Amino acid sequence: MKHRVTLIGCGTVGQGLLELLRDGREDLATQHGAEFSLVGVSDLRMGSAEASTGLDVGAVLDAAKRGSFDGLPGSERKRDAIGMIQEVPADILAEATHTDLQTGDPGLTHIRSALTAGRSVVTTNKGPIVLALRELTELARTHGAHLRFEGTVMSGTPVLSVATRDLAGDRIQEIRGILNGTTNYILTRMEIGESYDDALADAQKKGYAEAKPDADVEGYDAQAKVVILAAALMGTELPLSKVPCEGITGITPDMIATARDAGQRYKLISSVRRGAGGVEASVRPMALDLDDPLAAIGGTMNAIDFRTSLLGPLTIVGPGAGRRETGFALLSDLLSVHRAR
Ligand SMILES: NC(=O)c1ccc[n+]([C@@H]2O[C@H](COP(=O)([O-])OP(=O)(O)OC[C@H]3O[C@@H](n4cnc5c(N)ncnc54)[C@H](OP(=O)(O)O)[C@@H]3O)[C@@H](O)[C@H]2O)c1
User: Fold this and answer.
1) Which of 66, 124, 210, 330 most suits a substitution to test ligand 1, by most atoms within 8 Å of the C-beta?
2) What region, left, alpha or beta, does residue 187 occupy, with left being phi > 0 and alpha being psi -120 to 50 degrees?
3) Confidence of residue 310 (pLDDT cuts 50, 70, 90)
4) Is the CB–ligand 1 distance for residue 81 below 6 Å?
5) Is 225 designated active site?
6) Is any ligand 1 atom within 6 A of the Cβ of residue 322?
7) Per-residue model confidence (pLDDT) at position 20
8) CB–CB of 158/316 below 8 Å?
9) What is the pTM of this model?
């Protein structure tokens, strides 16, 4: 089956997806019977290009590396994201613009617009899902479209699909996770004796932490993922303000040493559980016993630990970021939409 795809936002993740579409073209056709034809791409800085018969994905990638789509066939007609979504006939929108947890935009407007036009959406953008999952799900249903957002939690590591598809029939009671690789890297460095400042500087040097690291170290990125887990897997919309959040900036070498002496290790734990008063969620540093499956997760790796009524414990470990890893989240979502269509 052929699917016409438009990509909005051609940064790290968008380019990761294009690499996988370029390299996996034959396997996708032979193993899955799926052909994804890139009929349009729009990026704030690079411009736009479109072709109803499909763009040459390799040429789009080369242009993206140069920083401009100018010169590509179909780049003469400049379209912004909304113009592309509304006017270029397509089946699926891949939305990979930056996350804004206050307004959800520009992604929220893009996704609303695509679903309203009956186009399915795959996205790695947390903002729209945190702020409007119920509305977007309803919009998709009304217009016969599909919405997938695997990459918003743990990148391409399958978490949401496993929980919704493979745990169907079971009931998730509690979810605990290490959902932010930057803070896990910093805590891992502190375990081997580095100060918080040195560990953060090292994470910044290696490209794991932003120059302005607040979203990671204050726990806000993990807090957004907790809201997505509560909504997608426990059917409860929690506003960000209802999720108590404490990051790792208060963790000192003394605390790490005291925990070590007690046979424990600090981790930034995101949790969602069904309590007597409904679904409760939080993000906070916790000293875990070393036999806790989450205590063994080091470096930038992420993990999630489900406790379910029938299966009991289930732990999934995998990458939580990266160009190809997160591009893969979009690819697996595209295949999920392919199966659904
Ligand atoms: N990178 C990861 O490992 C990872 C992992 C999980 C989830 N995510 C999520 O995936 C999304 C993309 O991440 P990324 O790392 O690829 O970010 P990025 O490198 O900053 O790419 C975002 C791209 O979107 C473009 N853009 C912004 N507003 C636009 C608009 N209105 N119309 C068209 N293009 C627009 C940006 O252009 P300008 O540069 O000109 O602003 C940029 O090229 C984010 O929401 C992020 O939170 C990323």
Assistant:
1) 124
2) alpha
3) very high
4) yes
5) yes
6) yes
7) 98
8) yes
9) 0.97
